[in-house]
Amino acid sequence: MAAQTAKDSSQPSPKQDNYALGRDFRAASRLGHQHYLWHETLGFHLHPLIANALPPSQPSRIDEQSSQPRIADIACGSASWLRSVALSLPHAQLNGYDISLAQCPPRQWLPANITLGEWDLFSSPPEDMLERFDVVHTRLIFTIVEGQTEDEGLATARKAISGLLKLLKPGGWLQWDELDVAHSFLLRADPAAEAPASTMERFLSVLEQKGKWVEKLVDVLREVGMQGARLWRYEERKDLAKQFFENNLMKDEEMANGGLRGTEAGRRLGDMVEKMWEESREGVVVCTPKVIVTAKKP
Asked: What's the pTM?
């Protein structure tokens, strides 16, 4: 029997799945904007701890291909992160995987060292992906991990970690970039003015009950034997707060018109998006800290 492999795609095409957000041009544009906002916030794509641990990425002969860093981006979205990494690591071997590649550019428009394939994080990895990568990266998979309860979210996070770690070589690094939704807060241009933001305050009370599993990712990684597991926190930059807030409103609108379309929850979310936008014009936004979790496979 032939070995199982991830489905390669030279021309990404739409695919039916249970993704709660959109996959059209609006959603792809939002992802691109989001990517650049994250980079402005962090100042890097690969965490310096990981980047400094990689072997030099230099041209190599065909028989030396294995010496080049192999990096996988899981749930790669529009492949924006991979394209940026390719600029700084042009000789690394970069692979992007997602359940759908509908938002990615055609293969012919990507740097030559990027390969894309379809793979569901919660399915068994194909044989050609097992223990293949020096770095496995994922970003913002909150919507597919979050459950109805904290325990449910943590259980799904464990499944995600199990799948991600199977791809790492011994000595390889995991980097998971996520939102610390539970510690979201209101940022006011003039704290003394107390601009009315009743909808945002109501929305914030909901966010504070979500994503509590994020802070426990380090504990889970230690439990499964990962070394040096650490959570790095990045607060919202004031000069980017408005752009991040508006990008998040676009995400919530996508959800209201996508996975929640036709439901009472979708109607309520869509209504809150409009009201929060109006409130933001008075100089107040919802901010959500960013975190990066890193760990090394022994």
From this structure: 0.89
